[in-house]
Structures are given as structure tokens and as C-alpha cells.
Amino acid sequence: MARAAFAATSEAVPLDAIAREAGVGIGTLYRHFPTREALVEAVYAAELDEVVSSAPAFLADLAPEAALRAWMDRYAAFFQIKRGMSDTLRAGWASGSIATPATRERITAAIALMLSSGAQAGSLRSDVASEDVTMMLLGVFLSTTASDSPERVGQLLDLVVDALRPQAARNT
User: Fold this and answer.
1) What angle do CA 131, 136, 138 make, to 5 degrees?
2) Longest CA pairwise span in the chain (Å)
3) Model's pTM, two decimal places?
4) Domain of 51: which CATH number?
5) Cα dist. 146→18, 75, 141 in Å?
6) CA 23 – CA 89 distance, rounded (Å)
7) 58-80, pLDDT tens digit by residue?
């Protein structure tokens, strides 16, 4: 419930609204998450774990290029949820009340896994650093707003994937 609430807006979501949506009282919510920071930290950590662990799952079911593109959609959803938590996250990281996760490193490792599989299959370039792809994706996500359509974000992600194809594959 909290994930959906955070994804729906970039504004701070009232905790009583999250409790109501979850069908619990505010006291129950506070027993599990004594502060807004604790709730945000739990949602962020769970989402990050799901994004990172989805990379091998996509690779198990799809060709590397398709797995990368599907994973990018999952990462975009994570970024959308993060927008609704950004003020609380920034304040918590600055004060030390929320642990600073190794988000970029974990995301970059997931991308590296998919790039390596794609390079072995010949469907993705072998000369691109996973850190560069991370930066490209952050550029897409930071340059789009919550009001941009998912189709617009998808078009930009398609361009990123196109840039990662070997030159011969782009010319066909």
C-alpha cells in the first residue's frame, strides 16, 4: 500500500492515508514503523532489492536485450516510487536516521550482468561500461517528470537500448 501511495505523487503522503489504504489503524502502522523515515526506509530497501533481484529473473526468461529492456521498465517503476519518498530519503540520509544504501553500485551490477549476457549473445555491445548505462538511465529518469507519460519514458528507454546494440544490429 505504501509503495502505491509513494508512486502516486511526489508530495509527502500522510501516514494516516497509508494506514487507511492498508486497512489498519494509525497505531498499528506506528507499531511497525515508528517514524515516517522507518516506513520510507523499509519501502525503499524492499523496492531496491526487488529491482536488483529482477535482473537475473528477466535473464532466465528472456533474451538479454529483451531482459534489459524489461528490467529498465522495472527500474523506472522504482524511480517513480522513489520520487514520492525523495524528501524523506534526502533528509534521513543527511541526518543519518536512514542508512545510505549502495543503490548505484547495486543497480550498476545488475546492468553489468545483463550487458555481459548480451555481449556474449552478440545482441548488446561489449564496449560499454555498466556505469555509463547507469548514468544514461538516471538522465532519462531525472529529465522526465511524474507528469510525463509512461509512453514517453518508454520511448527514451528504447533509445537507450538502441544505443547499446552493436552497430550492425542498428543498421538493419
Assistant:
1) 95
2) 60
3) 0.85
4) 1.10.357.10
5) 20, 14, 9
6) 25
7) 999 999 999 999 999 999 999 88
